[in-house]
Specification:
The chain has about 400 residues and is of the alpha/beta class. The protein has 3 domains: about 100 residues, 3-Layer(aba) Sandwich (Rossmann fold), CATH 3.40.50; about 80 residues; about 150 residues, 2-Layer Sandwich (Heat Shock Protein 90), CATH 3.30.565. Helices cover about 50% and strands about 20% of the residues. The protein contains 10 helices and 12 strands. Strand 1, helix 1 and strand 2 form a beta-alpha-beta unit. Helix 8 runs antiparallel to helix 10. The longest helix has about 80 residues. It is elongated, with a radius of gyration of 32 Å. The two termini are about 65 Å apart. The structure holds adenosine-5'-diphosphate and magnesium ion (MG). Magnesium ion binds next to helix 8. The site of magnesium ion (MG) has 4 residues, from helix 8.
């Protein structure tokens, strides 16, 4: 099946403009045009829109109203307004209210138009990838939560199960002794004694059932602990890759300062450590207030310190209020109204500990937070030392 590209949707009530647009951009982009807001909305309901480029002055629905309607249908689509000089005030106003991302002047300059479209499509793709990534993170956190819950239940089950098993064994032995006794000493109770094997069998089945449940419970408890990963992991590589996967989104919202030194290897799981770095970066991004990009800063530092490797993710966002500080790493603790699971830091802490390391936070409320993870470095193998 042919995978459809996100489209560039151009809307203008002037048929000549639509034709010129198609001619000048149709070869580089998946262009679809519409002659009115209503026509455009019908297309928006059918196709994935990467970029909406709309004229402002149109009969029926204005470009800004259309942009607003498209925002509700496809929030990730990048909305651009194309206007003559007389509408500049309206355009600037629309930008300030977040209805459109920017405006282009009419008549357009072809190179400027193409590069604006290219940039917008890239931005659209980055945003979508980031959202997909957040979705995946959310899934992982959910699975982890399930694991934690299951392990908790398994743990709780083991005590009562051991009582059941122990008592059933007592009962089974008792019944067997009773049968022997009855047959020898009280033959007149014969009909009851004849049913004893049946009871014994029932108890035997129950014992079997209980021990099967015990086995399952033990399995669940162990499976959360027994995943041993002992690869030699280069954190420089892991962090570089993780930063790369979110830097598009990060750079849109903040200045990004990355200083990664070459560090000795640590022992463990590349995937899990990548997950920790991703958690910290996404949290940093989410902690940044809505303000001009130049005022937001996220820095990522990696360095070696006395037998350990230290990763720091710092932001200058909201920071952590003292009253919630001690709960940050608790499972399900979140202050986010939307989309928070409260598991990112709990998982990160668990992963840090699994790797023999630690995670901590320093924060001055209102001035941001610094999360630090320290992991033991692997001693360079003796064979790697130069021969004498
Ligand atoms: N960089 C940060 N700055 C300020 N607060 C943070 C930061 N990172 C995490 N937090 C706080 O810790 C809480 C728990 O984080 P986390 O376990 O990742 O769960 P979630 O992100 O789903 O809320 C967040 O809700 C937030 O209050
Ligand atoms: Mg988080």
């Amino acid at each position: 099946m042919h995978v459809r590209q996100p489209i560039v949707l151009y809307v203008d009530d002037e048929p000549a403009n639509l034709a010129v647009f198609e001619m000048s951009c149709g070869d580089s982009f998946e262009v679809v045009t519409a002659g009115s807001g209503a026509e455009a909305l019908a297309i928006v309901r059918e196709r994935e829109v990467g970029v909406l480029l709309t004229d402002q002055r149109m009969p029926g629905m204005s470009g800004i109203d259309l942009a607003e309607a498209v925002r509700l249908e496809q929030p990730e689509a990048i909305r651009l307004l194309i206007t003559g000089y007389s509408d500049l005030t309206a355009a600037v106003d629309a930008i300030n209210r977040g209805q459109v991302r920017r405006y282009l002047k009419k008549p357009w300059e072809i190179h400027e138009l193409r590069s604006a479209l290219r940039e917008s499509l890239e931005l659209y793709e980055t945003t979508r990838r980031l959202h997909a990534l957040e979705g995946r993170l959310f899934e992982v956190e959910r699975v982890y939560a399930l694991g934690v819950v299951a392990a908790g239940i398994a743990h709780e089950l083991r005590n009562p199960l051991s009582w059941i098993t122990a008592n059933l064994s007592v009962l089974k032995e008792g019944l067997a002794a009773l049968q022997t006794d009855l047959l020898a000493k009280a033959p007149d109770t014969l009909s009851l004694a004849r049913r004893l094997p049946e009871f014994l069998e029932a108890v035997g089945d129950a014992v079997e059932g209980a021990s099967r449940i015990t086995e399952i419970a033990r399995g669940i408890e162990l499976s959360t602990r027994s995943q041993r990963d002992d690869d030699l992991v280069d954190l420089n590589e892991v962090v570089t890759l993780t930063v790369r996967s979110v830097q598009g989104e990060l750079r849109k919202r903040a200045r990004l300062d990355v200083a990664l030194e070459a560090v000795p290897a640590v022992r463990g799981s590349r995937t899990k450590l990548g997950q920790v770095a991703l958690n910290l970066l996404v949290n940093a991004l989410q902690a940044l207030p809505d303000r001009p990009r130049a005022e937001n800063l996220v820095s990522v530092r990696l360095a070696a310190r006395e037998g350990s490797v230290r990763l720091e993710v710092q932001d200058n966002g909201a920071g952590v209020p003292p009253e919630v500080r001690s709960r940050l790493f608790d499972p399900f603790f979140t202050t986010k109204k939307q989309g928070g699971t409260g598991l990112g830091l709990a998982i990160s802490k668990k992963i840090a500990e699994e790797h023999g390391g630690q995670i901590g936070v320093v924060s001055e409320p209102g001035h941001g937070a610094t999360f630090t993870i320290v992991l033991p470095a692997v001693d360079p193998a003796p064979a790697a030392r130069p021969a004498r």
